[in-house]
TrEMBL record:
Top-level lineage group: Bacteria
Record-level GO cellular component terms: cytoplasm
Organism: Paenibacillus taihuensis
Classification via SMART domains: Elp3 (SM00729)
Family matches, as InterPro entries: Aldolase_TIM (IPR013785), Coproporphyrinogen-III_oxidase (IPR034505), Elp3/MiaA/NifB-like_rSAM (IPR006638), HemN_C (IPR010723), HemW-like (IPR004559), rSAM (IPR007197), rSAM_sf (IPR058240)
Annotated signal peptide: none
Name recorded for this polypeptide: Heme chaperone HemW
NCBIfam families, A to Z: hemN_rel
């Protein structure tokens, strides 16, 4: 397993203007929350983390949530200054922040730019106002156009938007319209996710009561295949199951996760992976703040056994369309090969035509065209009982 200090940094800002009906992330409605005290706690966690595991140069930063852009411009400035204080950011680092349409005015965008942010990932989800309302989003389509325009005026050109498919009552035609409108924005990156009904969400309660009119499996598959064909037809590279980019605009931070490489994870509910251990932070805002006064605000820390790390390598690595290879495997697990550890599983999945062999970098495996829509079945094949 890799033992160097992480070169990727994830920071969680858990506040939102409201809670979406499908969301099970660590997020809390902003009103009445102790935001400044949370930023104090986050800075204490940064200081302790940098002392415990001194950072080398950070190559990617990702600020997620929640909605980090609910911070006011002064809070944003202060937060971004604290990141730079404790973590040496490489001059060419990718520095991403999630944003919600309608929460990025020009002053805030200038604060983000001045603080080092150079990539914005915007949670659009749909270009259909009726669907946006149905899933609990509080922005509308006009907010999307205004926010993208503001970002460009503030000097951001590395922009990505998230769209969702398989939403309640969504048709293939509605999705097709959203994708066409998204492409008309001429952005360099798009993330396209199928809805998952997670526990502890409003959608899960409705699903249990049989009150969530989800598209059929066939329709959902048709949506996914339409997305792939449309984005590839528009000159985008399908580089990961749910992600499409123009060359050079792939999400470098997410590639860290997909390559099973270490990363710092800071903030309430954040996950981190370093020195062969994974940790999860305390989720509640006040408990997180309280804990940070005396110690790292960790909920639990677990060593990752080598076998589990190898399974993780396969499961996340195969999400990328270039797949996994023996050079990377040997770098993380010296003396071992993918074939020596997963021969039986490979045989089974290759026989089903879901994987194909690649020659590059010591040889490896990637999803076949048939395997792409059945990715979850492939990934599951490499997880131990």
């Amino acid at each position: 397993m890799l033992t160097h200090a992480p070169r990727a940094l994830y920071i969680h800002i858990p506040f939102c203007t409201n809670k979406c009906h499908y969301c099970d992330f660590t997020s809390y409605v902003l009103k009445g929350q102790p935001v400044d005290e949370y930023l104090d706690a986050l800075e204490r966690e940064m200081a302790m983390t940098a002392q415990l595991l001194p950072p080398e140069e950070i190559r990617t930063v990702f600020v997620g949530g929640g909605t980090p852009t609910v911070l006011t411009p002064p809070q944003m400035e202060r937060f971004l200054a604290s990141v730079k204080k404790y973590f040496p950011i490489h001059p060419d680092a990718e520095f991403s922040m999630e944003a919600n349409p309608g929460t990025v005015d020009i002053d805030k965008l200038h604060a983000m730019k001045a603080g080092g942010v150079n990539r914005i990932s915007m949670g659009v989800q749909s270009f259909d106002n009726g669907l946006l309302e149905r899933i609990g989003r509080i922005h509308n389509v006009d907010d999307v156009y205004r926010s993208i325009e503001n970002a460009r005026m503030a000097g951001f050109n590395n922009l990505s938007i998230d769209l969702m498919f398989g939403l309640p009552g969504q048709t293939v035609e509605q999705l097709s319209d959203s994708v066409a409108r998204a492409l008309a924005l001429k952005l360099p990156h798009y993330s396209l996710y199928g809805l998952k009904v997670e526990e502890n969400t409003l959608f899960h309660k409705l699903y249990e009561r049989n009150e969530l009119p989800l598209p059929s499996e066939d329709d959902e598959l048709a949506m996914y295949m339409h997305l792939i064909a449309t984005l590839k037809g528009a000159g985008f590279q399908h580089y990961e199951i749910s992600n499409f980019a123009k060359p050079g605009f792939e999400s470098k931070h997410n590639i860290t996760y997909w390559r099973n490489e270490p990363y710092y994870g800071l903030g309430a509910g954040a996950h981190g992976y370093a020195k062969g251990e994974r940790h999860i932070n305390i989720k509640g805002i006040q408990p997180f703040i309280d804990a940070s006064l005396n110690r790292l605000p960790r909920l639990e820390t677990n060593p990752v056994p080598e076998r589990e790390a190898m399974e993780d390598f396969m499961m996340v690595g195969l999400r990328m369309l270039e797949g996994v290879n023996n050079d990377d495997f040997a770098r993380q697990f010296p003396g071992l090969t993918i074939e020596s550890e997963f021969g039986e599983q490979l045989e089974a999945v290759l026989a089903q035509g879901l994987l194909e062999h690649t020659e590059e970098r010591g040889g490896g495996y990637r999803l076949s065209e048939k395997g792409i829509p059945l990715g979850n079945e492939v990934f599951g094949a490499f997880i131990g009982e």
